[in-house]
């Protein structure tokens, strides 16, 4: 049982605390009293330093589409590492990954690489501002788009700072420049008419609307087709750009969420799975916009885009192999595993008479210990306040899984990899039956 039989993790955490605040470089990896430290990854499994092996259902917050150390990805990295690791010259490896992604994403005719999703989003925002000569960005309240000051506005706004949604006023995140919020208009997820009013009102100053069609912080419920259609229509009418953040949602379709939803964005931010597990980010879009903004021939590009590690050959090589392996057949199989898990979790909840909602799409699965909680960040926050036991149940569920060979996202999510099998999915479902029934017994 965790944490009792994990002395190795405890010792590492105590050592880490001396040299890193909170013991880490990434707040999402912490859980009390200390996180489990990983030693080895192999396919669908990760083994911790105390020798406990678990099925990995986080997959590095989505980046490991083929699980750990896929032999072909490892071979590509090893080959590239022995040939050329970093260089201040372009390489064929980046053309190859660019060609693969442009062929796959209909709205992406040209692309530029960076090293994180944060940078991909940031470059998309800069490109939109450079292209339109305008300042304002509109985004959805509660949507996480990485750590850039503009993109981070109103990601987790405290209720005391909520203003009238019709004003669309944002809140700078702690640590961001206080001016960031003045550059951002805040929309409420799936509020079609409210969003339309705000975009019309600020249209002349609006550079872009930034949207993630499946926001994790909003419980993995998808943006409605009507909301996305409104964004497409109104940005076009205003002469602003539509940016899709597909850092996460690329998992929703072979050609990303845009293919499934039938929306064509002007710019798309990418990251995670396109790097084959190595650090990556990218911005892509129409040749007209990308060339106008980033093409340095004939003087200086409108928006400068450097980066010591941009399009580094190791990431490019891993990304190309990984995306090639993630073909339509692999995509369909993985989505089938996602469907199996969603169905099994819903049945487990229902068998125990539990109040729970299973959400997500394709290889992303959300599990929330509440019934309907509305569409927006505010609806979700209110539902959490009204259901304090939901957090306790999520904690119980996470601990149960951790003690029974499954590493899931603590707030209640599962991100799948192609390394998983139906038997792995069924293991989680069986454990979900046990976890729900323990919760029921505890409540009685
Ligand atoms: C939708 C979305 N955008 C951007 C990011 C930032 O990506 P990165 O962590 O690679 O900076 C994330 C990361 O989780 C994300 O989920």
Automatic annotation (TrEMBL):
Gene3D superfamilies: Aspartate Aminotransferase, domain 1, Type I PLP-dependent aspartate aminotransferase-like (Major domain)
Recorded superkingdom: Bacteria
InterPro entries: Aminotrans_3, PyrdxlP-dep_Trfase, PyrdxlP-dep_Trfase_major, PyrdxlP-dep_Trfase_small
The keyword Transferase is annotated on this UniProt entry: yes
Annotated stretches, region: Disordered: 155-176
Cofactor(s) the record lists: pyridoxal 5'-phosphate
GO molecular function: pyridoxal phosphate binding; transaminase activity
Composition bias type Basic and acidic residues, residue spans: 161-170
UniProt-listed Pfam families: Aminotran_3
Keyword set, alphabetical order: Aminotransferase, Pyridoxal phosphate, Transferase
Keyword Zinc: no
Family the UniProt entry places it in: Belongs to the class-III pyridoxal-phosphate-dependent aminotransferase family.
Name of the protein in question: Glutamate-1-semialdehyde aminotransferase
Organism this protein belongs to: Caulobacter vibrioides OR37
Lineage of origin: Bacteria, Pseudomonadati, Pseudomonadota, Alphaproteobacteria, Caulobacterales
């Amino acid at each position: 049982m965790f944490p009792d039989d994990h002395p190795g993790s405890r010792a590492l955490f105590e050592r880490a605390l001396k040299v890193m605040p909170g013991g880490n470089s990434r707040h999402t990896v912490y859980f009390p009293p200390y996180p489990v430290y990983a030693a080895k990854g192999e396919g669908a499994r990760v083994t911790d330093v105390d020798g406990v092996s678990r099925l990995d259902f986080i997959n590095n917050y989505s980046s490991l589409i083929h699980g750990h150390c896929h032999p072909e990805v490892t071979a590509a990295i090893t080959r590239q590492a022995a040939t050329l690791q970093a260089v201040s010259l372009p390489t064929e490896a980046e053309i190859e990954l660019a060609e693969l992604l442009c062929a796959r994403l209909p709205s992406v005719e040209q692309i530029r690489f960076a090293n994180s999703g944060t940078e991909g989003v940031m470059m998309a925002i800069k490109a939109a501002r450079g292209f339109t000569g305008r300042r304002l960005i509109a985004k959805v309240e509660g949507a996480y788009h990485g750590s850039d000051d503009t993109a981070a506005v109103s990601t987790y706004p405290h209720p005391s700072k909520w203003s009238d949604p019709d004003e669309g006023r944002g809140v700078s995140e702690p640590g961001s420049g206080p001016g960031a919020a003045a550059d951002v208009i805040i929309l409420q997820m799936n509020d079609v008419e409210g969003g339309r009013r705000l975009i019309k009102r600020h249209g002349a100053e609006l550079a872009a609307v930034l949207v993630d069609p499946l926001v994790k912080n909003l419980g993995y419920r998808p943006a409605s087709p009507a909301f996305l259609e409104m964004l497409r229509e109104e940005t076009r009418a205003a002469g602003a750009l539509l940016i899709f953040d597909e850092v996460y949602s690329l998992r929703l379709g072979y050609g990303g969420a845009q293919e499934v939803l039938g929306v064509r964005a002007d710019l798309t931010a990418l990251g995670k799975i396109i790097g084959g597990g190595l650090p990556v980010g990218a911005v892509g879009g129409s040749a007209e916009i990308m060339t106008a903004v980033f093409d340095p021939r004939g003087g200086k590009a409108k928006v400068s885009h450097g980066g010591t590690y941009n399009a580094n050959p190791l990431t490019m090589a891993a990304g190309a192999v990984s995306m090639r392996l993630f073909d339509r057949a692999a995509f369909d199989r993985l989505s089938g595993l996602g469907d199996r898990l969603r169905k099994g979790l819903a049945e487990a909840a229902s068998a125990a008479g539990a109040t729970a909602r299973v959400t997500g799409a394709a290889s992303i699965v959300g599990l929330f210990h509440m019934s309907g909680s509305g569409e927006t960040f505010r609806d979700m926050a209110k539902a959490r306040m009204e259901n304090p036991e939901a957090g306790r149940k999520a904690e119980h569920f996470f601990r149960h899984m951790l003690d029974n060979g499954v590493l899931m996202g603590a707030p209640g999510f599962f991100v799948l990899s192609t390394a998983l099998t139906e038997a792995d999915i069924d293991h989680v479902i069986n454990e979900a039956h046990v976890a729900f029934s323990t919760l029921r017994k505890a409540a009685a």
